[in-house]
Write a structure and sequence with these properties.
The chain has 228 residues and is α/β, with parallel strands linked by helices. The chain is built from eight helices and seven strands; from the N terminus they run H-H-H-E-H-E-H-E-E-H-E-H-H-E-E. The chain has one domain (3-226): Vaccinia Virus protein VP39 (Rossmann fold, 3-Layer(aba) Sandwich), CATH 3.40.50.150. The chain has helices at residues 3-14, 17-25, 33-56, 75-80, 92-104, 139-152, 167-177, 192-201, and strands at residues 63-67, 84-89, 112-115, 125-130, 153-161, 204-213, 218-226. Strand 1, helix 4 (75-80) and strand 2 (84-89) form a beta-alpha-beta unit. Helix 6 packs parallel to helix 8 (192-201). The N and C termini lie far apart (39 Å). Bound molecules: S-adenosylmethionine. GO terms for molecular function: magnesium protoporphyrin IX methyltransferase activity. Its EC number is 2.1.1.11.
Length: 228
């Protein structure tokens, strides 16, 4: 399967069955056990990253690009904490949901939500974040995405991906992530050394790392900072 097909498939998935599924997972309503486990794992990733941001004590000065923002699980708390947040996602439905959630919390113009493929994003941001998006793309395409995101990052790029070491576990369980007709959506794991090499080639050096593992959710997060 080539990259364009992957992208079309991902967009369609997150505008249809994937939207219904992930909106629930990234919400607080009733879900099944697998979804609850994924919700818990994802929240841990978000909380770890919020802790990193807060530890730096400069959130109010930051412009942050949340590429592949989903329903705003990270963008919204970042905006609430004072950062200026530009949120974009390839899925119109996810963006709409993100906007609604922000407005329901009294946030009007920040975050700014836009429907956009991360590879067409432009501008400069202090920090670019891309959480749990690269799982939808093969490593070669993910590398091009990382290079583009790095070109937007003045100071640092923070991304998360499913590490290849968990391959067997994930493959065994992947059917539970994407059951039924949506099963055609692939899930790709990446070798950390491949991701680090791409980051280094972009002049970024890994500073902080984290790993979230639950039964059904695996996410390795890297903060890569521009070298002086
Ligand atoms: N980053 C969010 C979070 O952690 O809450 C959402 C993660 S969700 C698993 C993956 C998201 O990536 C979906 O909302 C999907 O629409 C989006 N996405 C996938 N490919 C994308 C692309 N090429 N450009 C922008 N968004 C993309």
């Amino acid at each position: 399967m080539n990259g364009v097909d992957d992208k079309t498939e991902v967009r369609e998935y997150f505008n249809a069955t994937g939207f219904d599924r992930w909106k629930r997972i990234y919400g607080d309503g009733e879900v099944n056990k697998v979804q609850l486990d994924i919700r818990t794992g994802h929240q841990q990733t978000v909380d770890t990253l919020l802790d990193w941001f807060k530890a730096d004590e400069n959130l109010a000065d930051l412009t942050i690009c949340d590429a592949g923002c989903g329903v705003g699980s990270l963008s919204i708390p970042l905006a609430q904490a004072g950062a200026t947040v530009f949120s974009s996602d390839i899925s119109e439905k996810m963006v709409e949901e993100g906007k609604e959630r922000a407005i329901a919390l009294g946030l009007k113009d920040n975050p700014t939500f836009v429907v956009q493929d991360l590879e067409t994003l432009s501008g400069k941001y202090h920090t670019v974040v891309c959480l749990d998006v690269l799982i939808h793309y093969p490593t070669e395409q993910a590398a091009d995405m990382i290079k583009h995101l790095a070109s937007l990052a003045e100071n640092r790029l923070i991304l998360s991906f499913a590490p290849k070491t968990c391959l067997l576990v994930i493959l065994k369980r992947i059917g539970e992530f994407f059951p039924g007709p949506s099963k055609t959506t692939r899930a790709y794991q990446h070798r950390e050394k491949d991701i680090v090499k791409v980051l280094e080639d972009c002049g970024l050096k890994v500073k902080r790392t984290a790993m979230t593992s639950t039964k059904f959710y695996f996410s390795r997060m890297l903060e890569a900072v521009r070298e002086e």
